[in-house]
Write a structure and sequence with these properties.
By secondary structure, the protein is of the alpha/beta class. It contains eleven helices and nine strands. Helix 2 packs parallel to helix 3.
Length: 321
């Protein structure tokens, strides 16, 4: 294929969509976490992908032209084989991103990330107040110690601080944003709190009102611009109207959980294939087939003027019911 003009990433995504190439991987290597957050959607279980299986999956993804890989958890740094897993993924040539709470980063991780830097390291900051942090996560941490380590790593990776907006920390969002700006980090906030995967809906009690989240996002010029740019480019390079899934899941993106199940995404865990038994290629074919299914029920949302920024995601009602 020949690249002519425009965004190179958009060009790659468009080609991947046409050919159903799985170029965006999200892999939950472990479900365990050293935090016990009040709003967590991950099931309270202990499971992890073993190193040998992870290497096999990496090999198969590379054969199918996967480009981007997000490593997440749980807390991925808790995985006993994390160092070898990251080295292997880096060696295979994936463009890596890492989601972490940052509390376990030590000199060994700094050396690893400095030598084999992920493209992006996203660290969730829940609060700058120790008591509030403990109330949300069950753990006290030294925020400044984490920031000091991330400052070293920003020479090699794009460091992003993420604020999860909750009723407990809503007033601190601006402070966390300022902390990111002062240290030259990126920043993003997330106000979307889901019921947990095991059916517990009490997590939504910590969710702030939509109006508050909107006012906070729109009060900052940078956040406002990011949102506007995001919504202006929501049109995916393939047809979504009338399909069950209005997103890239099963078209060029997918999720693998800590039990090696292949899923549509992190919140729609339909477990179409156990990758310890089947090949990724077999599982990917099943996801493609599911993604191609049409919605059998029409709703008033189909004719809504703002449906492009408020798609009918089947994962959300599935979590509630």
């Amino acid at each position: 294929i020949e690249y002519k003009s425009g965004s190179y990433e958009d060009f790659v995504l468009s080609h991947a969509a046409k050919k159903l190439i799985p170029i965006q991987a999200e892999i939950e290597i472990i479900s365990n976490c050293n935090f016990h957050c009040i709003h967590c959607y991950v099931e309270k279980r202990e499971s992890r992908i073993d190193g040998t299986t992870f290497y096999k999956i990496c090999d198969q993804l590379k054969e199918m032209c996967c480009v981007w890989m997000l490593i997440t958890g749980g807390e991925p740094l808790m995985h006993p084989e994390f160092f070898n897993m990251l080295r292997y993924a880096h060696k295979k040539g994936f463009e890596l991103s890492l989601f972490t709470n940052g509390s376990l980063i030590d000199y060994r991780h700094i050396e690893l990330f400095y030598t084999l830097p992920p493209e992006t390291i996203e660290v969730t900051i829940y609060s700058l107040d120790n008591e509030s942090q403990k109330a949300i996560t069950g753990r006290s941490i030294d925020i400044q110690a984490i920031i000091s380590k991330l400052t070293i790593l920003k020479e090699k990776s794009n460091i992003v601080l993420k604020a999860i907006l909750l009723t407990q920390n809503f007033a601190e969002c601006d402070s966390i944003k300022e902390l990111a700006k002062t240290n030259g980090f990126g920043f993003r906030m997330d106000a979307i709190i889901h019921p947990s995967l095991d059916g517990n809906i009490s997590t939504i009690n910590y969710r702030i009102q939509a109006e508050k989240a909107a006012r906070l996002a729109m009060s900052d010029s940078i956040s406002r611009t990011q949102l506007c740019n995001s919504y202006q480019s929501t049109k995916l390079p393939f047809e979504t109207n009338g399909y069950e899934f209005p997103c890239s899941a099963g078209v060029y993106s997918f999720h693998i959980d800590s039990n090696c199940n292949l899923n549509m995404c992190s919140i729609y865990r339909n477990k179409v294939s156990d990758l310890r038994i089947e090949s990724f290629q077999e599982g990917w074919g099943k996801l493609n087939k599911l993604r191609s299914s049409r919605r059998s029920i029409k709703t008033k949302c189909d004719s809504c003027k703002i449906k492009d920024i408020c798609s009918l995601c089947p994962a959300i009602p599935r979590l509630y019911n």
